[in-house]
Amino acid sequence: MREATTISEYIASTAAAVEDALQSALPAGWDVPVKLREAMMYSLNAGGKRLRPMLVLAAAEAVRGERDAADAAMPIACAIEMVHTYSLVHDDLPAMDDDDFRRGKPTNHKVYGEALAILAGDALLTHAFYCIAQAAKNGRISAGTALAVTEDLARLAGAPGMVGGQAADILGEQGVTSLSELEYIHLHKTSDLIAFSLQAGGRAGGATDAQLEALARFGSNLGLAFQIQDDILDLVGDEAKLGKKTNSDVERLKVTYPYLIGLEASRAEVGRLTGDAKKALLSARLAKPERLLQIADYLMGRDH
Amino acid sequence: MREATTISEYIASTAAAVEDALQSALPAGWDVPVKLREAMMYSLNAGGKRLRPMLVLAAAEAVRGERDAADAAMPIACAIEMVHTYSLVHDDLPAMDDDDFRRGKPTNHKVYGEALAILAGDALLTHAFYCIAQAAKNGRISAGTALAVTEDLARLAGAPGMVGGQAADILGEQGVTSLSELEYIHLHKTSDLIAFSLQAGGRAGGATDAQLEALARFGSNLGLAFQIQDDILDLVGDEAKLGKKTNSDVERLKVTYPYLIGLEASRAEVGRLTGDAKKALLSARLAKPERLLQIADYLMGRDH
């Protein structure tokens, strides 16, 4: 990756590097049914902010203070993007959120059909673990790091993490009433993978236990702020910039932060959580924390 | 596990030990939505032959020649049963095979709804990788074994393995015509996880590379024989013993071995493949191959 100066340049160059790495993440020599490979790559290549892989790479670099750390962490960055992508493909299914468009493009099942969309999601999730194990085999990360990252991912993407948050969200459609219930959903559906990304990047960069703990707190707060900002943008955002319809939460009678505590209080909460995140990060005494701090500010101010 | 003498006793006592271990595989202390946990355990506890975990345990014991080897391999045995179970939950979905019953019980989505069935499957797949990583953390298997097993599982259960076979099966419903196409489906949909089980058990037992290769060949042949036997039983089996309707392949116009080469030739093929499997196994010079040989004979003669 080329050295970037501004945060916008950093985001763009990191996203490009991740997208480049994703192209060869599924070995070309593997005998995979053409349509399945296509369906997997369709959603992997559907754009998005590439936030989670960027956090992996930025955390690795922040801990070690060297750009090489980001290269070592790239397989983990690809893995988390695969997990995030699979979760979107499954979330969009008719039996779940039933979405026809994502980021302005038809969703996976609209293009490939439900059966293949389910299987493409399954294959992406499975392949994430392959990428991590391979990174150890190729010597890019240590065996200990690969195992710790595998365990973290399986927990934070699994029943007590992301899938749990999604299940609570679906079960709660019959009536989420309290802020604590909504916080459970947001924390697990969104924050857990963001916290994972920061910790995993930290592990690849050789972080101490105290630094890993601080990165996880940074991630948890940042993730919750990110999700509340999403709720806000769904209410007041610009459809063209978002690449999806606004007011979808209202139409689905989804309980959100603005619904529960109001728009202004939600905005204040985003600010407070971002502040807490930055405080947690600064306590970690990382070699080069600046980029992560910039990302936090950028996310708070984003309009898409 | 108690020492078993006959193969029937061995199968029963192994299944009981696996079922016992599965009860605590998902940590009780984890904050998981109650319905999600229920949906996961419903399908994990829905019975079945527990063939794949049995092969893991039997392979570990065959390589090391000691019963203790099976105990070390138990987390891998649980992991493969979770992957197998998730694949059944997703296969049964309306968008896939649309089955209402499995092993005489309502399928997961009939009890918990489609959304939760998709998520329960996702969570089971994810948790399989947790079990393997944890086994290394707890010192039951080495870090090297855990990483190799993770990589094998992610490949053989993923796009070039089980999911690829399932995708080919679904795509082929528009017309599988050749034996080689059908063999691709069977090999990946069924054999890959069976070969994985034998190799993973072998790794846990400390097998040499040559032994791992022989176990994989044993597994591949055994898996293909197993699937052809399934095709045969769907045609001529006893519904009460099978716990599902026979002739479902015919009703769905599914192309099977009996359809392509006839019933008698299919039976002969099961015999030939089982023989090849046993020959491959004997070439590995395992410490105690007897149980694996008995399992091969048992599977060939089974009526359910």
Commentary on this structure:
The structure is a homodimer of 304-residue chains. Chain A is globular and about 50 Å long. Chain A has helices spanning 7-23, 34-44, 51-64, 68-91, 108-112, 114-137, 143-156, 162-172, 179-204, 209-236, 239-242, 248-251, 257-261, 263-282, 290-301; strands at 101-102, 105-106. Chain A starts with 6 loop residues before the first helix and ends with a helix. Chain A is mainly α and 304 residues long. Chain A has a two-stranded antiparallel ribbon with strand order 1-2. Chain A has one domain (7-299): Farnesyl Diphosphate Synthase (Orthogonal Bundle). Chain A is 72% helix and 1% strand. Chains A and B meet through helix 2, helix 6, helix 7 and helix 8 of A and helix 2, helix 6, helix 7 and helix 8 of B. Chains A, B: InterPro entries: Isoprenoid_synthase_dom_sf, Polyprenyl_synt, Polyprenyl_synt_CS, Prenyl_diphosphate_synthase.
In summary, what is this structure?
Two copies of one chain form a homodimer. The first copy, chain A, has about 300 residues and is mostly helical.
Based on DSSP secondary structure assignment, what is the total number of beta strands of chain A?
Answer: 2
Tell me which oligomeric state these chains represent. Answer: homodimer
Number of domains of chain A: 1
Q: Can you list the strand order of the major beta sheet of chain A?
A: 1-2
CATH fold group of chain A: Farnesyl Diphosphate Synthase
CATH architecture of chain A: Orthogonal Bundle
InterPro entries (chains A, B): Isoprenoid_synthase_dom_sf (IPR008949), Polyprenyl_synt (IPR000092), Polyprenyl_synt_CS (IPR033749), Prenyl_diphosphate_synthase (IPR053378)
GO biological process, one term (chains A, B): terpenoid biosynthetic process
Family (chains A, B): Belongs to the FPP/GGPP synthase family.
EC number (chains A, B): 2.5.1.10
